[in-house]
Design a protein that fits this description.
The complex is a heterodimer of chains A (230) and B (85). In chain A, 21% of the residues lie in helices and 25% in strands. Chain A is an alpha/beta fold and 230 residues long. Chain A has a single domain, classed as Rossmann fold. In chain B, 33% of the residues lie in helices and 35% in strands. Chain B contains 2 helices and 3 strands. The model of chain B has no long low-confidence stretch (mean pLDDT 96). Chain B has one domain: Mth169, Chain: A, CATH 3.30.1280.10. Chain B is an alpha+beta fold and 85 residues long. The chains are: A alpha/beta (230), B alpha+beta (85).
C-alpha cells in the first residue's frame, strides 16, 4: 500500500504528511511533483497543506490546473482514494472533485489553533478506525477555511451523509463558538458522493505523535491502510 | 488582430457571506455614510487581449472567467469595458 504525496510550488505541509504516513505500519510513501504525469503506483493520493501558487487569484485555483491534476482526476474517477488537507481541500473544491468552495474566514483573521472535530461518518475508507461520534483534537492553520455551498448542494451533501467532520466544542456539542472560520453547518470535512475523495481543513497529519499534543489524527491514515490494503 | 483592453469585475455572489464587504459597510456607516446599503469586495482584472474585433475579445475573456478567473460556486463576473489597448 503506497501513499503518493503531491508537492505544488508553495506547498508546505508535504513533509508533515510524509512523516504521518511513515508512522503507519505497512505503508510506503512516494513524493510526487506537480509537473509529473505519473502517480508512481500510489494507491492513495494526498494533496497537502500550504499556499500553492501563493494563493493567487483564489486559494487552489491555479494548482487545480497543474499537470498532475489530470492523473489525479482520473485516479479519483476510477474510485481511487484522494485525501486533501487544508490547501489540498481547497484544490479539490476548485477541481470540482468535491462540491462547494472555501472562502475567507468569517473573522477575516488567519486561524491557528487546536479544534475539536466530531467524526460524523465512520463507515468510510478514511474513518473506519474511529468509533461513531469520536472526538478528535487536531490543529487548524488557515485563512480561507469557510466552507460554503449553494443551499441545494448543501442539502444534498447533508442528505447523502457526505459531511465527515464537524467542528464541535470539547464536549462534542455543535456550537458556533467552536467553529474557527464560519463554515456552514460547522463543516470541517466532506467527501464526494462516491466516498473516495475526502477534503478537510484541519491537519490530522500534525496530530500523530504525543510530542505534538495529540495522536488523534493517526486513525485517518490507519483507516486508509486497513481499507485499501484489504 | 487588434489589441483590446478588457476590464472584468468579479464580486461575491448575493447570498454568499462577504465579511470584507460587511466590514467596509460597517466602517462607512461609522464614518457617517449612512446611505450605504450594501458593500461587496471583489476583484478587478485588466487583461490585454489580441482579437479580430471587440466582441471576440469579450467572448475570450468570458471563457477565461468561466474556466479560471471566477469561481462558479461563489462569484459573479461582469465585463466592465472593452477598449483598444
Amino acid at each position: 500500500m503506497k501513499f503518493g504525496i503531491v508537492t505544488f510550488p508553495g506547498s508546505n505541509r508535504e513533509e508533515d504528511a510524509f512523516q504521518a504516513v511513515s508512522m503507519v505500519g505497512g505503508a510506503s510513501a512516494v513524493r510526487l511533483w506537480h509537473k509529473d504525469h505519473d502517480l508512481q503506483g500510489a494507491d492513495v493520493v494526498i494533496l497537502p497543506g500550504g499556499f500553492s501558487y501563493g494563493d493567487y487569484l483564489r486559494v487552489g485555483a491555479i494548482a487545480r490546473f497543474s499537470p498532475i491534476m489530470r492523473e489525479i482526476t482520473e485516479h479519483a474517477r476510477l474510485g481511487g482514494p484522494v485525501l486533501g488537507i487544508c490547501n489540498g481541500f481547497q484544490i479539490l473544491c476548485e477541481s470540482q472533485l468535491l462540491p462547494g468552495a472555501l472562502l475567507r474566514n468569517a473573522s477575516l483573521r488567519f486561524s491557528s489553533q487546536w479544534v475539536t472535530l466530531r467524526v460524523e461518518q465512520t463507515h468510510t475508507m478514511f474513518t473506519n478506525a474511529y468509533r461513531p461520534g469520536a472526538l478528535l483534537r487536531v490543529p487548524v492553520a488557515h485563512g480561507d477555511g469557510r466552507f460554503t455551498a449553494d443551499p441545494e448542494s448543501l442539502l444534498r451533501i447533508e442528505g447523502e451523509g457526505q459531511v465527515v467532520f464537524r467542528y464541535v466544542d470539547r464536549s462534542g456539542v455543535l456550537d458556533l463558538a467552536a467553529n474557527p472560520n464560519g463554515s456552514l453547518n460547522n463543516i470541517a470535512g466532506i467527501m464526494n458522493d462516491t466516498g473516495n475523495v475526502l477534503g478537510l481543513m484541519p491537519h490530522p497529519e500534525d496530530a500523530v505523535d504525543p510530542l505534538l499534543g495529540s495522536t488523534d489524527g493517526l486513525g485517518l491514515f490507519e483507516s486508509m491502510l486497513a481499507r485499501v490494503a484489504a | 488582430m487588434i489589441r483590446y483592453r478588457v476590464a472584468v469585475h468579479i464580486v461575491p455572489r448575493k447570498g454568499v457571506l462577504d465579511p470584507q464587504g460587511k466590514a467596509v459597510a460597517d466602517a462607512l456607516h461609522a464614518l457617517g455614510f449612512e446611505t450605504v446599503r450594501d458593500a461587496r469586495v471583489g476583484r478587478h482584472l485588466v487583461l490585454d487581449v489580441d482579437a479580430g474585433e471587440a466582441g471576440a475579445a469579450e467572448r475570450a475573456v468570458r471563457a477565461m472567467c468561466d474556466k479560471l478567473l471566477a469561481n462558479p460556486v461563489t462569484e459573479d463576473y461582469e465585463i466592465a469595458g472593452v477598449t483598444p489597448a
